[in-house]
Write a structure and sequence with these properties.
The protein is mostly helical and 291 residues long. The model has no long low-confidence stretch (mean pLDDT 87). The relative contact order is 0.12. It has twelve helices and no strands.
């Protein structure tokens, strides 16, 4: 009984550590890819396995990241209280949780089609490999963006069993969206990254340069979404959604600056979650309205 209680407590701690509820960032874009591929809703079975793939892959990536960065987190005052460096969660449990999530992801990919299974190990390499990128390149933010950006292309493959160059535009847009807000978030660790020799855009270009690069990434992201709308002949409802997304991004950049990072908090993450939900809803409604 004590062992079961400890396992349950460790599981709860792990879910809190990886903030599994933040799967909302990538899931709406995956669903956008699925809806575009199907021209409507895919089957319930396909949707179910897409969701399981998304949640399990992200959970594996986050748990592995916390495991790989445990020593780095311990030395950073902002992250020293995280579960592993604080001693609340063991490395062994986090490792087993990561392995379990990887297995669930591979099984889920196999339940979709042959191509999703064949590409699943590559997807895992991307989402797990991100954890080591900050050790070797200042552009690690783009690798994180790619880890989430492959979601719509993966969902397209899950529905159709093949890839279409048009959906890669959405992958590029999501990659730049995530990379942009990750650059802003990394500004909090500017001093620590420089002192520790870790690579990041803020560390390489300074806070002001990082903000301009983040703005540029988000501008190109919006351009990509306009192109996507043209490629899929999306209508006015999707255009309204895109305008809302653009407005939210402008607001996001307005509330933080190189001199004031106080609002880079949970609310900042929530705002990005709203962006992904709004975009998915507008595209889905647009598609269904024209059926």
């Amino acid at each position: 009984m004590t062992s079961l209680r400890q396992t349950w407590q460790s599981t709860r701690t792990t879910l809190e550590m990886i903030k599994w509820e933040h799967s909302i960032f990538a899931l709406p874009f995956a669903l956008t890819g699925a809806v575009l591929a199907a021209g409507g809703w895919p089957s319930v079975r396909v949707l179910f396995w897409i969701v399981i793939c998304m949640v399990s892959a992200r959970s594996a990536a986050m748990a592995f990241n916390r495991l790989a960065d445990a020593e780095i987190d311990r030395m950073n005052p902002r992250t020293a209280s995280r579960a592993i460096p604080a001693g609340v969660l063991s490395r062994t449990f986090a490792a087993w949780f990561t392995i379990l999530c990887c297995v669930v992801f591979l099984i889920s990919a196999a339940m979709l089609n042959r191509l999703t299974l064949l590409l699943a190990p590559i997807a895992l390499l991307v989402v797990l490999g991100y954890s080591y990128m900050k050790r070797v390149t200042r552009w690690s933010h783009l690798v994180l963006g790619l880890a989430l950006g492959i979601a719509p292309s993966a969902a397209w493959i899950a529905v159709r069993g093949s890839i279409d160059p048009r959906i890669i535009v959405l992958t590029a847009a999501v990659m730049l969206w995530v990379a942009g807000f990750d650059v802003l978030y990394a500004c909090q660790d500017f001093e620590h990254d420089r002192a520790s020799g870790l690579n990041s855009i803020p560390q390489a270009f300074g806070l002001s340069g990082a903000f301009w690069l983040a703005r540029g990434m988000h501008f190109v992201m919006l351009t990509m979404l306009v192109l996507l709308a043209a490629l899929f002949h999306l209508g006015p409802i999707a255009s309204i959604g895109l305008l809302i997304v653009a407005s939210l991004l402008l607001y996001e950049h307005a509330i933080v600056s190189p001199r004031d990072l106080r609002r880079l908090n949970a609310a900042f993450f929530t705002l990005n979650g709203i962006i992904s939900v709004v975009y998915f809803a507008s595209v889905a409604i647009d598609i269904f309205a024209r059926r």
